[in-house]
Specification:
Structural class: alpha/beta
Strand content: 5-15%
Distance between the termini: 66 Å
Low-confidence stretches: 44-51, 534-540, 547-559
Mean pLDDT: 84
Helix content: 40-55%
Order of helices and strands: HHHEEEEHHHHHHEEEHEHEHEEEEH
CATH architecture of the largest domain: 3-Layer(aba) Sandwich
CATH class of the largest domain: Alpha Beta
CATH topology of the largest domain: Rossmann fold
Number of helices: 13
Largest sheet: 7 strands, mixed
Number of domains: 3
Length: 623
């Protein structure tokens, strides 16, 4: 109690609030116990060989152990504090009750005073009243008229006696208040819980510092990146802090969860710098032998000088080829201009990802963060990042088709996702195996999550389009325990999508029973890849199917390593979901039987049914 107890304070005193506080403390302790039990379960490490290791893992384990100990200590201390509050309520309430009852008894006490010989009695009524300082006074007029003066004196003596008794009870209550107040303060002293394992105070929380540390961990690979967490943390940085992160991690723009405008800004800066370094690298090789010419070997090719020239030429050719890939991508990133030389609104190129070694590149026509309709194109076999510039006509074709279908030009985005290691014809990563799809699927999943994380305003309608083996990657990303963050999927010229039927498809927010209505597929009658389901095959170069030996068990579906083609009868896709395709038979200038495999983007009138339908699907349902 902060001051002397008065009668008014005694009347207002409500120690039961201590029990209410005790209940709250016990409830908090219960929640802490639940948190302590759930904490280890929430501490998940990524699977599939991506577990945290090394110093990052050790630091996390130490921090986790500290949290576990803190949970246990806080739980124990809260329960102890609750018990202290309960006991304080009991003792103080009982003492206050006694004081109140005594005070009430004093003021309701009747006084009948008899003469010494008992012959006469004087009724003094209830003569006492208690002041704010607990002094008992005799009320004026309490001595009956005609009573001897000794009656008044006797009442004063009695008032003094009652004052002494009441103040003794109040004093006991004040002593209890001080004693239990000290115990409550001690029980609620949790300052030591705010100390780290070394007994030092924890550093006050700084949202900017925490954001920088989180992004630093993701950029360095010490912490698995999560697009939604990254978007939240990235939004807490100012422009200077973002620049600082880019200077430390040149490819930070590759991370999913950073807005497209920032991705493009930092990725272009890094890409331009790396391209300039490649130019300088080519020049350094050429300057090694300024008197030599790449097009003319020395007079004696078999001489020592001739061997040195060939080694020099091979290095120069390789460096120039690598440089040319970067120059081609730079060209693909240039603005799309109208006949008057002005950039076409809404079709700006965004460099969303790129790898210095040329293995990955992701470019968007239009800003996916502000677009109403977003499409992601996943290419197939041998379609590495250096093929992206040559495929920009496909991206632009789908963009224009969507706009023609009603999608706003400044609200449309089509992305070329060359973000995985597309299969070749050597080694294990070949198109007859699902391994390439299994490796690319989590990357595509995370990329699509990143699009959702950074999108502004109402959710966009997102379509993922897989061509050839790219459809296998899309199917793998939307099945086998994964869920693809998209509204619709389109399979073009698909050899199989790692599913047995549309019901195996898993899209975020789409009921599996409705998956078929979100699945679309197209197959040109002259495309051999989707029409080889009746025989086990290894899909060879140029889309030509090469029969495989029965019984080889090339994949999880036996002799069909990638599962049935989505346009085939085994897949059981409703006919309404089959995209019409104008046939593209072999011609004298395109005699290969697999030529139709690449003609789904034909915009020639009378041959553009597939591209037109793709635009309608990208535009999404009427909203």
């Amino acid at each position: 109690m902060s001051g002397p107890l008065t009668r008014a304070l005694l009347e207002k005193l409500n120690p039961s609030v201590l029990s209410t506080a005790a209940q709250a403390l016990r409830a908090r302790a219960g929640k802490i116990a639940d948190e302590q039990a759930q904490f280890p379960k929430r501490l998940r490490f990524p699977a599939s060989g991506k577990e945290w290791t090394g110093a990052a893992s050790d630091a996390l384990q130490e921090r986790a152990s500290g949290f576990g100990r803190a949970y246990g200590t806080e739980h124990t201390r809260l329960l102890a504090a609750a018990e202290t509050y309960t006991q304080a309520d009991g003792y103080i309430s009982e003492s206050a009750k006694t004081a109140r009852q005594f005070l009430a008894g004093v003021e309701s006490m009747p006084m009948l005073v008899a003469s010494p010989d008992g012959s006469k009695t004087w009724d003094c009524g209830e003569p006492f009243e208690v002041a704010q300082d607990f002094a008992v006074h005799v009320k004026p007029g309490s001595v009956p008229q005609g009573a001897p003066w000794q009656i008044g004196q006797l009442l004063q003596f009695k008032a003094a006696e009652l004052t002494e008794d009441l103040k003794r009870l109040v004093g006991q209550l004040e002593d209890l208040g001080r004693d239990w107040g000290s115990k409550v303060r001690e029980a609620m002293d949790f300052k030591d819980l705010a100390l780290d394992s070394k007994g030092q105070p924890y550093t006050p929380y700084d949202s900017h510092r925490a954001a920088m540390e989180t992004i630093e961990g993701m950029a360095s690979g010490a912490v698995p990146d999560n697009p939604f967490i990254l978007r939240d943390q990235w939004g807490k940085l100012n422009d200077g802090e973002k620049e600082e992160m880019w200077r430390k991690h040149a490819h930070i723009g590759d991370l999913d969860g950073i807005p497209a405008v920032d991705k493009d800004k930092f990725n272009r800066a890094t890409f331009d710098r790396e391209t300039e370094e490649k130019k300088q690298g080519v020049q350094r090789i050429l300057d090694e032998h300024k008197d030599w010419n790449l097009d003319h070997a020395p007079h004696n090719p078999g001489s020592n000088e001739g061997r040195q020239w060939r080694e020099w030429k091979n290095r120069a050719d390789a460096a120039q080829a690598d440089l040319q890939k970067s120059l081609d991508l730079q060209g693909a990133l240039k603005p799309v201009l109208d006949p008057n030389g002005k950039e076409i609104p809404g079709q700006h190129r965004y460099l969303l990802q790129h790898a210095q070694d040329g293995t990955r590149a992701v470019v968007s026509a239009g800003n996916p963060d502000t677009a109403k309709n977003v499409a992601t194109f996943v290419p197939g076999t041998t379609e590495h990042a250096d093929h992206l510039p040559g495929d920009m006509h496909r991206i632009d074709g789908m963009f224009n088709s969507a706009v023609n279908a009603g999608s706003p030009k400044d609200g449309t985005s089509v992305i070329g996702w060359f973000g995985y290691d597309a299969p070749d014809w050597v080694g294990e990563n070949n198109p007859s195996s699902p391994k390439g799809a299994e490796a690319g699927a989590p990357l595509l999943d995370r990329f699509q999550d990143g699009l959702r994380a950074t999108h502004e305003g109402d959710p966009s309608h997102n379509t993922v389009i897989g061509h050839s083996y790219g459809s296998t990657v899309v199917g793998e990303a939307a099945s086998h325990g994964r869920t693809l963050n998209a509204d619709d999927v389109i399979y073009l010229g698909s050899p199989g999508v790692e599913m047995q039927s549309p019901s195996d498809l898993r899209l975020t927010g789409v009921d599996p029973s409705q998956a078929a209505s979100h699945t679309w597929a197209a197959a040109d009658k002259w495309d051999p890849v989707p029409h080889s389901e009746s025989i086990p095959v290894v899909h060879g170069p140029f889309g030509v199917p090469i029969p495989a030996l029965p019984g080889t068990g090339l994949g999880p579906f036996g002799d069909s390593p990638l599962g049935p083609a989505p346009t085939g009868s085994e897949f059981n896709l409703p006919k309404s979901q089959i995209i019409p395709v104008d046939p593209h038979p072999p011609t004298w200038d395109h005699p290969m039987p697999g030529g139709a495999h690449s003609d789904y983007w034909d915009d020639t009138q009378g041959k553009d049914s597939a591209l037109t339908t793709m635009g309608v699907i990208i535009n999404g349902p009427k909203r």
